[in-house]
Amino acid sequence: MKIFEILAYHGRKSGVKGFDISHTGQNSTTFSDYSSTRWGSFFTTNPEFANIYGSVDQYDLQISKTAQLSSALLSSFYDYVESLYENEQLERNTFLDIQEIIGGNWNIWQLFEEETGELFVKWLISNGYDSARYEEFLENDDGEEIASNTIVVFNPSLIEYKGQIEMDLYKDRLERKNSQL
Hints:
The protein is an alpha+beta fold. It has one domain. It is built from five helices and ten strands, in the order ββββαββαααββββα. It has a four-stranded antiparallel sheet with strand order 1-5-9-10. A four-stranded mixed sheet has the order 4-8-7-6. A hairpin with a 4-residue loop joins strand 2 (about 20-30) and strand 3. Helix 2 runs antiparallel to helix 3.
């Protein structure tokens, strides 16, 4: 299996380093902030885009099979979700949320949030993917539109920060947290 090394950027407001496949964080909308669980770690190949989210760090991603979030891939996922719903293995609200996202009514990054995100990432992993990629646009503080080739990584061991594998940073953080208990 060929490994692709991609130089990518991540912006964050907190100084905490480390990633996990699922994490709870704060999201901001026009109306208010809300807490949500995200499945995967988000990166961009554009440092300007990462800067929108806070201080920027550079990472090397060691990924081998990336799912391009195309209409064909999303259609396959929808077929899978529909079969779960028809067999009563999926809640109605999750099914409706996925319909809205795939239908283009919500942002594509919402495929990685909450129950939908858990289902989507597990489906991608079961199909051999270790990451996903899509294009998105946001405005910076000056009102300029910035494009991103966004990459979502599912396993912290595929992320390197200054030569240190991110899984090691995550384990170190857990050990420090456990020693404080």
